[in-house]
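User: quick one, sequence for these tokens?
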């Protein structure tokens, strides 16, 4: 029903306008996710004429934090300019934000910017230990941080409602816990579900490789190539795309296998867990789990034991340390 063009930056591809136009002519919705650097008014106008309906611009904190996370001075100013360019040509604007130890204290500030920009939606997700983020473990959210984060998100949901902004928690903002209905009440079931990769979504890489989710690692999560097989065959027969549909509690490990919500959640976001451990089926970045650990007088801590090798879609390795804490 919908195709979101992403990158890097989709508009660096010479044929991106042709692709947007083809998506719309096929009767599908077309949106874009962008960091905004280089998204000029001329490019925005061309996208609008081709039928692009909405675009989500990344804002990952205040100016200093955003530029540090993006690794480019001036990235924040460029994102704000891109947002203005999109609105000027009539493309609906959304904002997406990654949450880590740098951006978390600035989420209220980011939301006020979202409201001021006139965005209709704000998508939030935890920074995942992939790529450059895998080499910045001190920046990543720890399980115990979720005990502070989720009450904050619940308060921000109220501000979103006041400002007319739809809050879209991504799949790794999880799972269950006392604020789940507050954050996901407008979703179909009104609560967290399992990973959507290969269930209600898929990713297409620039070379035609098909994955269950565009964020998942190319290896081992590519199920086939559109140049070699039909999308239907890849979707129905590929083990990589069927994994999330077919996995059961028996495929889980660690705490997730024993969890009360195991059969519904099945370890939540596969991308998050796989990026930490190199295998799916266990995800300590879970609010319910952090609460249960606290109830038992314990906490989990993620420690990096292997750095990422420096390849596309790469990840390092982490281990879980369980510690006793004072009541």
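Assistant:
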């Amino acid at each position: 029903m919908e195709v979101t063009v992403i990158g890097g930056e989709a508009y660096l591809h010479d044929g991106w306008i042709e692709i947007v136009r083809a998506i719309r002519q096929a009767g599908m919705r077309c949106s874009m996710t962008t960091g905004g650097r280089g998204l000029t008014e001329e490019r925005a106008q061309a996208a609008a004429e081709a039928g692009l309906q909405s675009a989500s611009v990344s804002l990952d904190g205040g100016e200093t934090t955003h530029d540090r996370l993006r690794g480019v001075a001036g990235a924040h100013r460029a994102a704000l300019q891109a947002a203005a360019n999109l609105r000027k040509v009539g493309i609906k604007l959304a904002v997406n934000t990654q949450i880590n130890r740098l951006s978390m204290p600035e989420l209220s500030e980011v939301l006020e910017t979202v409201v001021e920009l006139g965005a209709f939606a704000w998508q939030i997700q935890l920074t995942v230990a992939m790529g450059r983020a895998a080499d910045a473990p001190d920046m990543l959210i720890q399980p115990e941080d979720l005990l502070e984060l989720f009450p904050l998100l619940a308060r921000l949901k109220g501000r979103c409602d006041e400002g007319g902004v739809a809050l879209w928690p991504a799949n790794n903002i999880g799972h269950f816990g006392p604020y789940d209905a507050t954050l996901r009440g407008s979703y179909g079931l009104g609560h967290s579900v399992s990973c959507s990769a290969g269930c209600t979504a898929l990713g297409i890489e620039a070379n035609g490789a098909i994955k269950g989710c565009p964020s998942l690692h190319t290896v081992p999560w590519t199920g086939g190539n559109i140049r070699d097989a039909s999308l239907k065959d890849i979707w129905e027969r590929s083990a990589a795309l069927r994994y999330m549909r077919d996995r059961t509690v028996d495929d889980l490990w660690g705490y997730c296998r024993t969890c009360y919500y195991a059969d519904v959640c099945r370890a939540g976001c596969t991308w998050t867990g796989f990026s930490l451990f190199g295998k799916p089926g266990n995800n300590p970045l879970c609010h319910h789990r952090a609460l249960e650990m606290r109830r038992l007088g314990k906490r989990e801590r993620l420690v990096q034991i292997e750095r990422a090798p420096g390849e596309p879609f790469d990840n390092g390795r982490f281990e879980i340390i369980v510690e006793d804490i004072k009541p």
